[in-house]
What does this fold into?
Amino acid sequence: MTCTETFGFKGTVIHMLNAGDLNYRITIEQNKPITSSDGTRVENWVAVVSVWADYQAKSGREFFSAQRFNAEVSALFRIRYRSDVNVKMRIRYKTRVFEILFMNDTSKDQGELALGCREVV
It folds into this structure.
């Protein structure tokens, strides 16, 4: 089992990344909490870098939990390899926000990075 199968990407074939595939502009953000005036820690997401990516929506589902309907969307973003990206970061694509679940150096020569994500709804 590969790490992509664990997150619902079973059978996903990842082809070599071509420059023409990178047609979605995404921003990778990192949480740098700040302290509010009353002393509580507040999330503060700061842009780290904007890159071109390939975006593939993989699955979506709706479910009822905690007395309300919820939605969850799984997606795969492929970018040029970067050593400064980690799973504590998130991706902003237009008005949508995605939590990074896993990272995979798919090309074995650090040419490409696949980011398995879940949309924060």
User: Anything to note?
Assistant: The chain has a mean pLDDT of 80. The helical segments are 3-6. The beta strands are 24-31, 34-35, 41-42, 45-65, 68-80, 90-93, 96-104, 112-119. DSSP finds one helix and eight strands in the chain.
